């Protein structure tokens, strides 16, 4: 029997994956807080969710689309597990002396409609982000990292918002208000990426030097289901 070569990932990739999963799970919790900045209404998830796109950019730039695909599906699985366990615990009746059901439910009682919209939007947006990063890197022969980091975020976040808001909030939030919400989300998350870009560039350069990798996805199969093809 021919022994298949073992697929391995580096320690830094593993640490980035852990941070990616933490950001996704934390975003679910922070989303329960509504924030008003002047006339703009936002959710607390905006503080941390864009970090997941920055990590996605770093992973795709250094290790390539295959590793980014593994990262995205790992994040999806961990996020699903967190939401499912939170929903299960929320469903189980509390003890007679426990009086914090409303607070617990507000954080962990994510409605199935919102959860489904969040999962679908995350997968589509993240894979679009990784695909644009990968294709632009090949097209630009490794140049213009800043441009592809920003444009991939615009593409990914736009798809994320176009899917999430109508599915999760359509009919709850007036339809004429939804386009404005989506535009603000895309603008602010992209602005977040631009502000963080100098740090992102330094992190990417350090990763390439430390890992000795700078992957170009020539001939890569972009099938999102080939999870373990790394």
TrEMBL record:
Signal peptide: none
Record's function text: Involved in the import of queuosine (Q) precursors, required for Q precursor salvage.
InterPro entries in the cross-refs: YhhQ
HAMAP family the record matches: Q_prec_transport
Membrane spanning residue stretches: 12-30, 42-63, 70-94, 114-133
GO cellular component, one term: plasma membrane
Localization: Cell membrane
Membrane topology: Multi-pass membrane protein
Gene Ontology terms, MF aspect: transmembrane transporter activity
Keyword Cell membrane applies: yes
Similarity-based family: Belongs to the vitamin uptake transporter (VUT/ECF) (TC 2.A.88) family. Q precursor transporter subfamily.
Domain of life: Bacteria
Protein name: Probable queuosine precursor transporter
Alphabetized PANTHER family for the sequence: QUEUOSINE PRECURSOR TRANSPORTER-RELATED
């Amino acid at each position: 029997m021919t022994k298949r070569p073992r697929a391995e990932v580096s320690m830094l990739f593993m640490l980035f994956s852990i941070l990616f999963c933490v950001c996704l799970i934390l975003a679910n919790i922070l989303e329960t807080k509504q924030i008003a900045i002047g006339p703009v209404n936002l959710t607390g998830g905006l503080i941390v969710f864009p970090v997941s796109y920055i990590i996605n950019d770093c992973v795709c730039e250094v290790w390539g689309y295959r590793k980014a695909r593994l990262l995205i599906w790992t994040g999806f699985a961990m996020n699903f597990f967190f939401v499912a366990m939170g929903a299960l615990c929320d469903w189980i009746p509390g003890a007679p002396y426990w009086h914090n059901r409303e607070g617990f439910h507000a954080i962990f009682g994510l409605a199935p409609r919102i959860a489904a919209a969040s999962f679908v939007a995350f997968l589509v947006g993240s894979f679009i982000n990784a695909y644009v990063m990968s294709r632009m890197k090949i097209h630009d022969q490794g140049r213009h990292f800043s441009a592809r980091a920003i444009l991939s975020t615009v593409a990914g976040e736009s798809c994320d918002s176009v899917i999430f808001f109508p599915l999760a909030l359509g009919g709850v939030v007036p339809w004429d208000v939804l386009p404005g919400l989506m535009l603000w989300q895309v603008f602010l998350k992209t602005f977040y990426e631009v502000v963080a870009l100098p740090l992102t560039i330094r992190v990417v350069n350090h990763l390439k030097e430390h890992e000795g990798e700078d992957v170009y996805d020539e001939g890569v199969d972009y099938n999102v289901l080939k999870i373990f093809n790394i």
